[in-house]
Design brief:
The structure holds two protein chains of two kinds.
Chain A: H1 5-19, H2 21-33, H3 38-45, H4 49-61, E1 65-70, E2 75-80, H5 82-87, H6 91-102, H7 104-116, E3 118-120, H8 121-148, H9 165-179, E4 182-184, H10 193-209, H11 215-237, H12 255-266, E5 288-291, H13 293-312, H14 315-329, E6 352-354, H15 355-361, H16 379-401, H17 407-427, H18 440-456, H19 464-485, E7 492-495, E8 501-503, H20 506-540, E9 543-544, H21 547-552, H22 556-568, E10 572-578, E11 588-594, H23 596-624, H24 626-632, H25 642-645, H26 648-680
Antiparallel strand pairs in A: 1-2, 3-5, 4-5, 6-8, 7-8, 9-11, 10-11
Helix pairs in contact in A: 1-2, 1-23, 2-4, 6-7, 8-9, 10-11, 13-14, 14-19, 15-19, 17-19, 18-19, 20-22, 20-23, 23-26
Chain B: H1 8-28, H2 36-41, H3 50-62, E1 66-71, E2 74-79, H4 82-89, H5 93-105, E3 110-111, H6 112-119, H7 123-135, E4 139-142, E5 152-155, H8 162-165, E6 170-171, E7 174-175, H9 177-195, E8 196-198, H10 219-239, H11 243-251, E9 253-255, H12 266-276, H13 285-297, E10 301-305, E11 311-315, H14 356-362
Antiparallel strand pairs in B: 1-2, 3-5, 4-5, 6-7, 8-9, 10-11
Helix pairs in contact in B: 1-3, 5-7, 12-13
The chains are: A mainly alpha, B alpha+beta.
Chain lengths: ~675, ~375
């Protein structure tokens, strides 16, 4: 994170909001001054070393502060970790993801991890059991009370405690580890990345190069070796599903997501009681776990991409895209590669999924038959169109990959797939859930065209289920083609296995996301003309001032005014190129340009500032009604409804502040989305 | 002397003859420059006698039927029409100098300062010359789009060139933004009509057989339908004023499948505008292209590789929404539009604690 003034301010506020003033004071000083030892820290914060150690312990526990013990000088340095501090703002979203995917229990685990930074499996499990017991006791008390009050219970009756809470907890933790939302933790993460790098570099230098290196070649060599070592270190840290005897209740066919979904559906999922059976998985009770921010960002990015697809193409296609992204999510550990750790030189092709896999994983409730306009009922025409597109695509591909492009290839492909489909019912007779597919009629529309195609290829008509399945696959493929054909490049076709393999070039689409956000901002702030001019400059590069009015068809006067306004805001800038040594204005070319990087930096910083202002305002609003809020925090009233002990005026104030809190925090969350787009995705 | 041997009548006859012989060529190519050898090749001057040619040419020059020019190949003459020559003959020397410059400038017109610089005339003389020429309605003032402040002159018989008037986008030397917007609206309506599949069934009967699209009809038929369709479209949009109805209309716009070839290209759009008779002016394919480019920059349409022309245009889905419906997150809260955001600081002249904008926003 850039250490701009506003970023520091925001991080301090975030720590203050979550962990209180003591920690935030230490954290701010560390952020502003860089790494410090305890005596120096004490001097700057004017806190007693005792208090300081107290605060630092919390910060280290939360991984908000790195420490480094220097053996030579026998001192310990502390250094702030602004990334982790910023991530606090995203906690709500991450908890929400866990809830939507794995249920309330997962949300609870993640929430606890946010509060405690990291904790052992043992602690989590015992905490959960204790809470269950407490809830049980409470329920009983309520029941007793309710019986006394004409059987009117206030709280909804909670589900009876599961039979085996510990086992349930273990299964859920495994699930979360598997998904990557949480990760096991080792002592190494308390060392700042720079320190880790230095340590390894030092060791490498001693061990492999005899203490010194000379020449650029050796330098490069060392760098590469360090990178490899770091890479290995990181992979060691990652959760590996080794020794997993875990065919999740014998139902692994649909992958993790599919199985969860089905289970959730079968449970009704009304009051979020995701009953997780104990499948016998046991984790090491002393294992430490914490939240894996990098992975959470990947999930958030996928969500954002789905929204984009929905905006650009349509809802159904977005659903297909979502399923596709889920398939590759497992193999995408982080959004941005770190050049110090990852091998950025020869990157392998990104993770891929095939149309067939997607068809299997896609929820049956997605109506793949809808969402695309039908061009013509005349099937031959449709085929032609599709073919034309295919050949065009193939040519593109051939150019890139040097692959031979021929129509026969495509034909062969179809046949192979058809065979594969025909076989599926035999292999997996249980998956024949098409009988109750409510959208059968939907599929019927395309059936004639499909049949014609089949007979054309001299194939025997297949059983109904296979037909349906194939139809669905074709529809899904249509959606995928649409995604791949879009200008912002949601997908890229990279193979023909399984009726087409697809990958996502995240870099390109992230850039598109950024540009889109920038455009919205420009349109809002500088109107249509400013938006037009800026986009023009972004696309065409530097433009002569005299050219702009002609290209944009805007009056010269208006162009100048607008550009000056935008220059004041730092969005565009001007470059003067004198045509001769005289440097007179009349003999000078004025080139306007739009620096994307600079604009995103400015934008990011103003978002930080925006967010901190919201937090500050929130604090002020809270202070205004402090006495009311203090009342709700009284320990003896914690279990009571505010209606019971407050008078009308106080209640009104409470509701007002709650409303304000909601809108401010909601806005902060939305701003965070922008930060994610510009910084993290 | 040999020259004296030719009578005045003879000279006049040769003069006429040369002019007659040259004028069809000059008519064909007004820029034609006649050189000495060209004139001699006409075989009118006996024995290719140079002295005689000199006298004849001088006569023609005097009568302003010839005009002496210099270029890289040396000296030559250009022809003037009889009417033009008459005009020239009526002018004084200064007036002639001014007029010839304006004449040479053609339909581009000439800046008064340039005339002054080239003729070296005194201000008052120049003004009187211009006055005289204007009163005879031989020249008139004109405005150039490129240099709106300059005082320009042009021959009355000519109309200013496209470059000077700025092409179809300018009316009376002013950029006609209303017209440009109108043209873009027309184009956008056409493109968006061709981009989306309007599903009438998307909400209730999505699984029923969708209606056929007009794509298979003959182009004339389609065009006719479309021209009709443009009217009702507006009405339709006006009728749905409720938020939900709007949302529904937006949802029912489905994308065409990948590789759809029916998006319109420049040629088709040009034809459409031409046949639609929306504007009194004719817009060329280039003009349409300019508009399309701007619409691309406005993020309303997008280039796609499709159709018979290779490059076609499709409307973007978000352009279906009104501008105020797609506000950015940043400007939603007061800080995004705060005029004093740069000054804002806790403890500064303005800050979060005393921010009026926040108070308004929070009490909303």
């Amino acid at each position: 994170m850039s250490q701009s003034k506003h970023a520091v301010e925001l991080c301090a506020l975030l720590v203050d909001e979550t962990y209180g003033e003591l920690t935030s004071r230490i954290f701010t000083i560390l952020l502003r001054r860089g790494r410090l030892t305890i005596p120096l820290l004490s001097k700057h914060t004017r806190l007693s070393p005792n208090k300081l150690r107290h605060g630092l312990a919390v910060l280290v526990q939360e991984n908000l502060v790195y420490y480094h013990f220097d053996e030579d000088t026998n001192t310990t340095n502390y250094e702030a970790n602004p990334e982790a501090a910023y991530m606090l703002v995203r906690s709500g979203k991450i908890v929400e993801i866990a809830r939507s995917r794995y249920g309330d229990l997962a949300a609870e685990i993640v929430g606890n991890l946010f509060l405690s930074g990291h904790s052992t499996v043992k602690e989590l499990v015992s905490g959960y059991i204790a809470r269950l017991a407490e809830a049980e006791a409470m329920r009983k008390r309520e029941e007793r009370l309710a019986n006394g009050n004409n059987g009117q219970s206030k709280t909804p009756v909670q589900a009876p405690a599961p039979h085996n809470p510990a086992g349930q907890m273990h299964s859920m933790l495994t699930e979360l580890l598997e998904s990557g939302l949480i990760q096991p933790l080792t002592g190494k993460i308390f060392l700042s990345p720079t320190d880790t790098y230095d340590k390894i570099a030092k060791k490498m230098l001693q061990d492999d190069f005899g203490g010194s290196i000379k020449g650029t070649k050796q330098k490069e060599d060392l760098k590469e070796k360090i990178r490899e070592r770091l890479f290995n270190l990181r992979s060691e840290r990652e959760w590996k599903s080794v020794g997993k005897k875990r065919p999740l209740n014998g139902n692994h066919a649909n992958g993790i997501n599919g199985s969860n979904k089905r289970r959730r559906l079968s449970n009704g999922a009304v009051n979020g009681d995701h009953y997780f059976e104990d499948d016998g998985t046991r984790l090491d009770p002393n294992m430490l776990v914490r939240i894996n921010y990098e992975k959470c960002t990947v999930v958030l990015r996928n969500n954002r991409l789905v929204t984009l697809a929905s905006n650009r193409i349509g809802a159904t296609t977005a659903q297909v895209y979502e399923a596709g992204l889920r398939l590759i999510e497992k193999t995408v550990p982080r959004c941005r590669l770190d050049p110090r750790i990852d091998d950025v030189k020869d990157l392998p092709d990104g993770p891929v999924f095939s149309t067939m896999e997607l068809t299997a994983a896609l929820s049956k409730s997605v109506r793949t038959g809808t969402g695309i306009g039908s061009v013509s009922s005349d099937k031959i025409d449709t085929r032609k169109l599709e073919k034309a597109h295919k050949s065009r695509k193939r040519v593109d591909e051939a150019e890139v990959e040097g692959e031979a492009s021929s129509d026969e290839d495509e034909l062969m492909d179809d046949i192979a797939v058809a065979n594969g489909n025909g076989n599926i019912p035999e292999i997996d007779p249980d998956s024949d859930g098409h009988g109750d597919d409510p959208f059968d009629d939907d599929d019927d529309i395309r059936k004639p065209s499909k049949r014609a195609k089949v007979t054309f290829q001299d194939h025997l008509p297949k059983p109904e289920a296979a037909e349906n399945r194939e139809n669905r696959m074709l529809q899904i493929k249509n959606h995928l083609l649409l995604l791949a054909g879009d200008d912002c490049g949601f997908l890229r076709k990279c193979g023909t296995q399984g009726l087409g393999q697809w990958t996502v070039d995240f870099e390109g689409i992230t850039q598109y996301l950024q540009e889109e956000e920038m455009d919205t901002m420009l349109l809002e702030r500088f109107g249509k003309v400013g938006h037009r001019l800026a986009r023009m400059m972004r696309k065409l590069g530097k433009l002569d001032e005299k050219q702009l009015p002609n290209l944009a068809l805007v009056r010269q006067k208006d162009v100048r005014t607008k550009l000056a306004e935008m220059q004041m805001a730092g969005v565009v800038d001007i470059q003067e190129v004198p045509r001769d040594s005289g440097r007179t204005t009349s003999r000078t070319i004025f080139l306007w340009y739009f620096d994307v990087e600079r604009v995103s930096t400015i934008l990011l910083d103003s978002i930080y500032k925006n967010m901190s202002r919201c937090f500050q305002r929130l604090d002020i609003e809270r202070r205004r009604v402090q006495d009311v809020l203090a009342l709700t925090e009284r320990t003896d009233l914690l279990d009571e409804q505010p209606e019971k002990y407050m008078d009308t005026e106080q209640l009104n104030m409470l509701h007002e502040i709650e409303e304000k809190e909601e809108s401010l925090l909601g806005h902060i969350g939305r701003l965070d989305e922008l930060v994610a787009i510009f910084r993290d995705y | 002397m040999a020259s004296s041997s030719h009578s005045r009548a003879e000279i006049a006859a040769w003069k006429e003859e040369i002019y007659e012989a040259c004028s069809p060529i000059a008519q064909e190519n007004p820029r034609m420059i006649f050189r000495q050898s060209d004139v001699l090749d006409l075989d009118i001057i006996p024995n290719d006698h140079l002295e005689t040619l000199l006298i004849v040419a001088q006569c023609l020059l005097d009568e302003k039927l010839f005009k002496a020019v210099h270029d890289t190949h040396g000296m030559g003459w250009k022809l003037r029409t009889v009417d033009e020559a008459k005009k020239y003959r009526s002018l004084s020397v200064e007036q002639e100098a001014v007029y010839s410059l304006i004449d040479e400038a053609g339909d581009e017109g000439i800046w008064s300062k340039t005339i002054k610089a080239k003729t070296n005339l005194h201000d008052s003389t120049f003004t009187s010359c211009i006055k005289h020429l204007s009163s005879k309605s031989m020249i008139s003032e004109m405005k150039s789009v490129e240099h709106p402040t300059r005082k320009m002159y042009i021959k009355s018989s000519l109309s200013p060139s496209d470059r000077a008037t700025g092409g179809p986008w300018y009316t009376d030397g002013e950029l006609d933004e209303e017209f440009i917007n109108q043209a873009m609206t027309v184009l956008y309506a056409y493109v968006s009509k061709r981009t989306f599949y309007r599903s009438k069934t998307v909400i209730k009967e999505a699984h029923r057989s969708p209606k056929k699209v007009v794509r298979k009809m003959s182009p004339e038929h389609v065009k006719a339908l479309r021209n009709e369709g443009l009217g009702p479209r507006g009405v339709e949009a006006g009728r749905v004023d409720e938020r939900t109805a709007k949302r529904l209309a937006y949802e029912s716009m489905l994308p065409m499948p990948a590789g759809y070839q029916g998006y319109p290209g420049v040629d088709e759009l040009t034809l459409f505008v031409e046949n639609g008779k929306f504007f009194s002016q004719t817009l060329t394919a280039n003009d349409i292209q300019t508009l399309l480019d701007i619409m691309c920059f406005d993020d309303r349409i997008e280039r796609v590789v499709a159709g018979s022309e290779g490059i076609a245009y499709k409307a973007l889905r978000k352009s279906l929404l009104d501008e105020d419906e797609r506000s950015s997150v940043l400007t939603e809260a007061p800080c995004g539009r705060c005029p004093v955001f740069d000054l804002c600081e806790e403890g500064g002249p303005v800050g979060p604690s005393n921010c009026e904008y926040f108070s308004d926003w929070l009490s909303m």
